[in-house]
Amino acid sequence: MLEPTYQADVVVVGAGIAGLSAARRLTSAGVTTVVLEAAHEVGGRMATEKVDGFRLDRIGRLLSTAHPELRLTPGLEELALLPFDPGVLLHSDGRHHRAGVSPGARGARGARSARGALHAVRALASAPRPGSGPRRPVAVPGRQVSVPRARSGAPLGTAVDQARLGAALTRLAGTPLEQLLARPELPAAEALVARGLPARTVDGFLRPLLAALLCDPDLTTSSRCADLALHAFAGGRLCLPEGGAEALPQQLARALPPGTVHTGVRVTSVSTTSVTTEHGEFRCGAVLIATGARAAADLLPGLRVPDFHPVTVVHHTTDEAPATGASLVLDADRGGPVSHTAVVSRVDPSRAPAGRTLVTSTVLGAPGPGVDAAVRTHLARLYGVPTARWETLAVRHTGDAVPAMRPPLDLRRPVRLLAGLYVCGDHRDSGTVPGALRSAERAAAALLTDLGMNRPLHTADPVPTARAA
After folding, report:
1. What is the 3-state secondary structure (H, E, C) of the chain?
2. Has residue 133 got a pLDDT over 50?
3. Domains of the chain as residue ranges with CATH
4. Is the Cβ–Cβ distance between 294 and 315 less than 8 Å?
5. Across all residues in the chain, what is the average pLDDT?
6. Looking at residues 29-34, what average pLDDT do you find?
7. What pTM value is reported for the model?
8. What confidence score (pLDDT) does residue 368 get?
């Protein structure tokens, strides 16, 4: 049991990455901080389940090596990001086409340099059809590639269309974020059309890519979020954290002073000076709500709750790995329920026992009946191999997986509700993992400003050790 009279400068409610990151910044500044989590483990939606030696992410958001928050957030210095093969594999008309960028330029100077220039997007059939004709080189920014002469129907369009897309991504990687965010705001689907790219390129590549990055198959998300996602894609490599999504919250928790985090403690109400739990009351100088949006609104009546994009993740294992390497596979034809899939054990071998293969596939939207059977049928087309004998490890559906960030969107929604009461999380920013970390940084900065950094508010009692994690 927690001491009901324990005092702290700040009580953080929620031990997801936003709450843990904010706590790390506060404790580093000398602010006495306690983190209370209702679940029995840290991480929130960034959970990783262990099944028969496999590590299975519940949601498995795609990250990019270009996200500065993953490099600069205190506590994540040791985070290992394992990249997919460059770009993505687009499946269309029974064939695979690689659409990719190099590890990318960062900033305008890097984008202009020859070494940091993006590889142009290319369409390259993995198994050319008989009679498809000779290949001819196509001049595109950054690199020469080859495409089938007769494949004008490839997901990226004609060779000229591909060159335009490569140039557009090169410019995007080098565009300052402030300039991107100053663009007129539209729903992402409308913005793609308004940018003047060919319809075949938009429908065959950008739509499935953005659907995977934003978990929004209809692309109703604000074009500001879409631009941020494409900027990160163009400037880096898609990646996964080594060991599963839980690596982020676990590293942040380990960076906190012992006894800071208390799991299994459900908060029932908050004020500017106290937090009431099922175990008693915490008196404090300020409260930071760092839960998901719905739980935050339960504690803070009147807080806006966004809609959510539901996500279903299906994990399979098979004795023979599909021959796609460590690539993210997208369905350009959108001919089934799977948005994106990958042999994730090729990206991160720690996610599967030695000699076993882990295939993880994501379905966007509410799953229909028989989702596993429908996913297997779709995967057989995407990978070109029989899937009837694949073993299903888990099917995990999360209704409130990703906040829907529709326009008009304020990417810096207030984190200070009033003096002594603060809120952070992905629902206060872009609805992404980097957005959650950005909101935590803003909330910690507001708290430090309001509390003062010269001295703590109280002489705190020792942090109780019961149920501490």
Report:
1. CCCCCCEEEEEEECCCHHHHHHHHHHHHCCCCEEEEECCCCCCCCCCEEEECCEEEECCCCCEECCCCHHHHCCCCCCCCEEECCCCEEEEECCEEEEECCCCCCCHHHHHHCCCCCCCCCCCCECCCCCCCCCEEEEEECCEEEEEECCCCCCCCCCHHHHHHHHHHHHHHHCCCHHHHHCCCCCEHHHHHHHCCCCHHHHHHHHHHHHHHHHCCCCCCCEHHHHHHHHHHHHHCCEEEECCCCCHHHHHHHHCCCCCCEEECCCEEEECCCEEEECCEEEEEEEEEECCCHHHHHHHCCCCCCCCEEEEEEEEEEECCCCCCCCCCEEECCCCCCEEEEEEHHHHCHHHCCCCCEEEEEEEECCCCCCHHHHHHHHHHHHHCCCCCCCEEEEEEEEEEEEECCCCCCCCCCCCEEECCEEECCHHHCCCCHHHHHHHHHHHHHHHHHHHCCCCCCCCCCCCCCCCEC
2. no
3. 7-46+246-306+407-451 (3.50.50.60), 48-81+240-245+308-403 (3.90.660.20), 100-129+137-236 (no CATH)
4. no
5. 85
6. 95
7. 0.85
8. 80
- The answer for residues whose C-beta is within 8 angstroms of residue 61's C-beta and 6 or more apart is 46, 215, 245, 402, 432, 433
Q: What span, in angstroms and rounded, lies between the C-alpha atoms of 453 and 433?
A: 28
Q: Which of the residue ranges 96-105, 220-229, 328-337 would you say has the lowest mean pLDDT?
A: 96-105
Q: In whole angstroms, give the CA distance from residue 437 to residue 426.
A: 8
Tell me which residue of 322, 364, 365, 363 sits closest to 344, measured CA to CA.
Answer: 322
Confidence check: pLDDT of 60 > 90: no
Average pLDDT, integer, range 203-213? 95
pLDDT in tens, 348-406: 999 999 999 999 999 998 888 899 999 999 999 999 999 999 999 999 999 999 999 99
State the residue for tokens 């999504």: 245
Position 321 scores a pLDDT of 87
125, pLDDT greater than 90: no
Has residue 106 got a pLDDT over 50?
Answer: no
Q: Which two tokens stand for residue 26?
A: 């506060």
